[in-house]
Design goal:
three-stranded antiparallel beta sheet, binds carboxymethyl coenzyme *A
Length: 419
């Protein structure tokens, strides 16, 4: 949204100063529109890691990191997590509004019609080693979907994008389940769209994990999806790029890394060794981080972590795991970190992955599958963000600039004369 405020940049090298428009969002920090900067001054801006750069405008998700607030389409995450199910939230993220009962029935039916994957998929899967990491398998399978749906590949056709969105939301759980079944050498099961509920608490916990992971502004994997799709590639290829990015331990891979970290501390001797571990985390010469802690945007408690923490206690109580040594260790670690000045002064709080890993472990989900569950949930966010970008009249292929610091032009010396 435009605004009459301006920002003036002056230069000490004689370049004339430039006045730039300041854009106001519906909420959140103002944004300086630098699009004309290069054309007018011949200068770029420099912001590795996008610490101060808005890469797009968006109406989907809003985070206030200082307040610890997360809104999907304006609705607080707390209200969505307690009043809606995952598919209602998918409808909200994808189409902008929560569904009414008729819309919900229609949406659920559409998704359920697409849960099956092409039978060829299982032969594709056989190419993987049984011990392949599920995220390696998912990256391949999701990219592979583009080989099956030539009828919904055109990013510039809104109807095709919608069909791809439904296909992706519907097929991701099937692919994750197949990746698991393959890894344990069991036969695949065809998706059953109506299951009897075995345990309300566990179903609620899983649904909450899905809702809390559904979207999260312009995070690394979402930005990857946008950047990848900006070339006009097909939706399946772009989502596969998102899956690949999510895998990293600084992002979605943190839930698995967190559980592995707890396992290591447990092996070192458990709760008594937390102090020793925290010393390593604080040591600037070590690369050890407290996984499941810290966030680029949240400088207050991650609201998703608050909700996941609640679910964590509910699930542990339901399963009688309150005294499980690993879970006791996690709770002790959380307490110590929340009181330690290193974490307090840097505003490092537990993030959603700290608790989601514990919940998934308690439910019995194998640790290497955790990030694939995250990917399944985030798919709706990725595809909604991709659709938003393509429908934006200001959309252009993403092409960042650089500050070049390498060798300037030089001449090739024939190989015999190179020292
Ligand atoms: N353990 C120890 N120190 C940390 C941690 C941590 N988990 N996170 C940040 N710090 C320190 C960091 O060393 C730096 O200290 P100093 O100012 O003395 O150099 C300071 O806090 C700021 O950290 P940063 O690396 O500049 O922050 P960032 O915004 O670039 O990184 C992060 C954010 C999430 C990558 C980082 O906090 C981290 O690596 N956390 C652990 C991995 C994790 O749990 N990731 C999941 C994120 S939430 C799920 C999702 O949405 O993907």
């Amino acid at each position: 949204m435009s605004n009459n405020e301006k920002a003036t940049i002056t230069f000490s090298d004689g370049t004339p100063s430039i006045e730039l428009p300041v854009l106001k969002g519906a909420v959140g920090p103002d944004v300086i529109d630098i699009r004309k900067l290069y054309g007018t001054t011949g200068k770029f801006t420099y912001d590795p890691g996008f610490l101060s750069t808005a890469s797009c405008n968006s109406s989907i998700t809003y985070i206030d990191g200082d307040k610890g607030e997360l809104l999907y389409r304006g609705y607080p995450i707390e209200q969505l997590a307690t009043n809606c199910d995952f598919l209602e939230v998918c409808h909200l993220i994808l189409y902008g509004e929560l569904p009414n009962p008729a819309q919900k029935t229609d949406f659920v039916n559409r998704v359920m019609q697409h849960t099956m994957v092409n039978e060829q998929m299982q032969f594709f899967m056989r190419g993987f080693r049984r011990d392949a990491h599920p995220m390696a398998v998912m990256t391949g399978l999701v990219g592979g979907l583009s080989a099956f749906y030539p009828d919904s590949m055109n990013l510039h056709d809104a109807r095709q994008r919608d069909i791809s969105a439904i296909r992706l939301i519907a097929k991701m759980p099937t692919l994750v389940a197949m990746a698991y079944k393959y890894s344990v050498g069991q036969p695949y099961m065809y998706p059953r769209n109506k299951l009897s509920v075995v345990n309300d608490v566990l179903v609620r916990a899983l649904d909450r994990i899905f809702i809390l992971h559904a979207d999260h502004e312009q995070n690394a994997s979402t930005s990857t999806v946008r950047l990848c799709a900006s070339s006009g590639t097909n939706p399946f290829a772009a989502i596969a790029a998102g899956v690949a990015c999510l895998w990293g331990p600084a992002h979605g891979g943190a839930n698995e890394a967190c559980l592995n970290m707890l396992g290591e501390i447990q092996q070192m001797g458990g709760v008594e060794k937390i102090g020793e571990f925290i010393t390593k985390v604080k040591d600037k010469n070590s690369t050890v981080r407290l996984m499941g802690f810290g966030h680029r945007v949240y400088k207050n408690y991650d609201p998703r972590a608050k909700l996941m923490r609640e679910t964590c206690h509910e699930v542990l109580t339901e399963l009688g795991l309150g005294d499980d040594p690993l879970f006791k260790l996690a709770m002790a670690l959380e307490k110590i970190a929340l009181e330690d000045d290193y974490f307090v002064s840097r505003k490092l709080y537990p993030n959603v992955d700290f608790y989601s890993g514990i919940v998934q472990k308690a439910i019995g989900i194998p640790v290497p599958l955790f990030t694939a569950i995250f990917a399944l949930a985030r798919t709706v966010g990725w595809i909604a963000q991709l659709n938003e970008m393509i429908a934006d009249p200001e959309y252009k292929i993403a092409r960042p600039r650089q500050l070049f610091v390498g060798a300037t032009q030089r001449n090739v010396v024939p190989i015999a004369k190179r020292g």
